[in-house]
Design brief:
The protein has 376 residues and is an alpha+beta fold. The protein contains ten helices and 19 strands. It has a six-stranded mixed sheet, with no helix packed on it. It is globular and about 60 Å long. Belongs to the metallo-beta-lactamase superfamily.
Length: 376
Amino acid sequence: METPKKGPALHIPKSAATVQVRVLDTKTLLHLKPGLFWQPATPGWDGVYAPVYCFLVSRNDQHVIFDLGVRSDWHNYAPRIVKLIEATTTIVPGTDVFSLLDTEAAGLGIRPADITSVIWSHNHFDHVGDISRFPSTVELVVGPGVRAASWPGWPTVAEAAVLDADMAGRAVREVSFDGGLRIGRFRAHDFFGDGSFYLLDAPGHAVGHLCGLARTCAGDESEASFVFMGADACHHAGVLRPSSFLPLPSNAALSGVLDDASAAAMRCPCPGDVLQGALKSPSAPFFEVSKGPLFPDHDAAMDTVSKIQELDADDAVLVLMAHDLSVRDQIPFFPETVNDWRARGIKTGVRWLFINDFLPALSCSKEGEITAQQFN
């Protein structure tokens, strides 16, 4: 085991203000392919059917949704996007955020009409949903440059990626990061103006790509907690870990996170050794974001990943990426809040679960020598 490097100070401004965070899972799944979303591709592993997490962030009587996921009637996206979906991925449809709120939130007293803002982390189909179902009083919040990159939409522009209806009769607000505020190395925007919820500038994947950071518990260093909403800064936790702050742990620790399928696929009781064979270093991630159309600014995307790794190193920050299958059965979902994640020990419990996605694709040779099947 390598000695972990101490994470840098994040310099999150002190505040007694918090928000309630509820993770929304509409049960929609997308097939994510290695090589397209992260690299290198791994022989024997054809990817995952991944969820799409959205977030309901509540501050007193203000309720904000961070991302809307995939609309259940995805054939009604702009024609260009429908063709893209049909050519590149498989969708296992679930419900949608509006319906989830409308049918399950009655006990909370939070209905679609109570939402004040919808935030798009970016303008890709699996995050924009169908905002037209929400009242026109609900503002749409986007990152820098998104308005010009998105509208006019379809049908005004035949090859548009979003719809004219997404902004029709609705206030669209672009956030600015010119105020000089920083969280870690991220440029930040204080959404409510009280330190309870920040939007972060996270370029690389799409124009105006945003992440979120919500203060879920106030207090000193041992009590404070935050939830980081990573959107599509990366599509698999193996892009984030291991890191110099969280190197690969011991065999004993890794054995404790194996699920039945991974354990059955192992032909020797040494998952750490097998995984070491797939790493350039015990403190370097298994993957990086792919070079290609999904990360048009690869250097910026990798820099964003490195910033997230610094937050991931902090015990007070729970990093939740939009498509992380490994946490799906481990965190409380809407209508419950995730605010008590630190007391539940969720962060340490889920940290290495992602290895179950690809560990069966690795093997031990008959002689016991580790092979990584061209992982690097």
